[in-house]
Amino acid sequence: MTPETTILVAIGLPLVGALAISLAGRIGPNIREAATAITSVLLIWVVWGLIPTLMEGGRPSIEVSEVMPGLSIAFTVEPLGMLFAALASGLWLINSIYSVGYMRGNKEKNQTRFYVCFALALSATVGVAFAGNLFTLFLFYELLTLSTYPLVAHKGDAATIRSARIYLGVLLSTSIGLFLPAIIWTYTVAGTGDFTAGGILAGKLNDPEIGLLLALFVFGIGKAAVMPMHKWLPAAMVAPTPVSALLHAVAVVKAGVFAITKIIIYIFGIEYLFESPSSEWLLYVAAFTIIVASLVAMRQTNIKRLLAYSTIAQLSYVVMASAILKPLAEVGAALHMVAHAFGKITLFFAAGAIYVASKKTEIHQLRGIGRRMPWTMAAFTIGALSMIGVPPTAGFVSKWYILAGAFEANNLVAVFTIIVSTLLNAAYFLPILYIVWFEHEKEGDKEHGEAPFLAVLALTLTAILTLAFFLFNGPVIELASQVVKGLS
């Protein structure tokens, strides 16, 4: 199978898997979940099989269809997209393992629809990762929104439907109202929307126009949750925890920050943006989002809402790193997508495990729960320390590169933001760890132990990945470094 054919197989495989899952659901849950696991394993095999080609300098691409002259559906595998696709496909398998324990343990309804939509979302995610131009990126970005809406609305009650409509409304209105006009403007002035090393806009726009076009892209890509386009994310917390993990770690938010980073590098070009004063606003908006979202997180009493606002802040680390416009910071942006994915999926898995085992959703209810759920809360502790950036966790590695890039650029705003936000992260995570491990349960608390085995297995695996990335990050750094190779 050629690399070009492999691209199409990677996008099509989850679609075939979705059909197989739907049919298997009519036979029984074990067959359905086996179909999910087999599909996810095959997707890893296909996607990761492209890594050696990239490491050797290959950039396989394929054009599927020309919609009209100059506008085509095309795919290209480049280092940043490869990193995103490998991350999403790998975590899908672990999320699928977790989902079996969570969905059965919580006796959720419509489980077949859940697994089918998950597979459809992964197909769209791989399409986003391998998009060869802005038009293809937009198509799969929208498909990702539509395929995840039923997952957010899974419970089906009135409150859930209202929140799901906020999710859908914000993401569709920003993409159609801002992202699409930005794409049309780019095609008009550049004559192409292809992702090209060094960018395609140099000399095509004057300085104020550069800043305006950048704003259309950044705020139009609502999945990145840059304030004020962030409200969909807390609203989506009505979804089951495996969906929250999908939104925050595997697909949706990562698609947002991935798209912004890719557009900065391959559409604007780092050097071109660095020379444009009108692009400087992005760093300040990202810094504002990081600090304000962290402050809001400190006020939350619900576990998942705290994690949601933590995600908003962590996403803007990627945006801010991209906006620093220095090679080390761009590598840090790519690394933080991975580090945040490992740490945050662990935290959401733990939150879901707590709910399945004890039905507890509030932080004050967690007193002494570490004694009843040691595996779950040990994983939660590792995820929290990674969000803070404490070694030996993944979060330390990515923050190191972002901070190094900030010093390289002599950007005191970025340095200040990283230091202050790290302190704020500690301020809302460390008290939780204290009450979990050192305070005593209230009298009359429900007797319970750990969540179902598969849920605990999954969160243990992601916690191990969070620690392992601190020591074994060389291949990821090498892949991320290829993104900015040759940039000054």
Question: What this model shows, in words?
Answer:
It is an enzyme of class 1 (oxidoreductase). Helix 1 packs antiparallel against helix 2. The longest helix has 33 residues. The two termini are 37 Å apart. The radius of gyration is 21 Å and the shape is globular. The chain is built from 21 helices and 2 strands. A hairpin with a 2-residue loop joins strand 1 and strand 2. 57% of the residues are buried. It has 488 residues and is mainly α. It has a domain of 209 residues.
Short recap of the structure:
The chain is an all-alpha fold. It has a domain at 280-488.
Relevant terms:
488 residues, mainly alpha, NADH dehydrogenase (Quinone), transmembrane helix, CPA3_Na-H_Antiporter_D
Could you report the average pLDDT, rounded to the nearest whole number?
92
* Beta-strand residue fraction: under 5%
Poorly predicted sequence stretches spanning 5 or more consecutive residues: none
How would you name the oligomeric state of the polypeptide chains in this document? Answer: single chain
Q: Given the C-alpha coordinates, what overall shape results?
A: globular
- Number of helices, where a helix is a run of at least 4 consecutive DSSP H or I residues: 21
Q: Total strand count, please?
A: 2
Rg, Cα atoms, Å: 21 Å
| Secondary-structure element string | HHHEEHHHHHHHHHHHHHHHHHH
Helical fraction: over 70%
Query: Which secondary-structure class do the elements indicate?
Result: mainly alpha
Distance linking N and C termini: 37 Å
Biggest sheet layout: 2 strands, antiparallel
Strand order of the largest sheet: 1-2
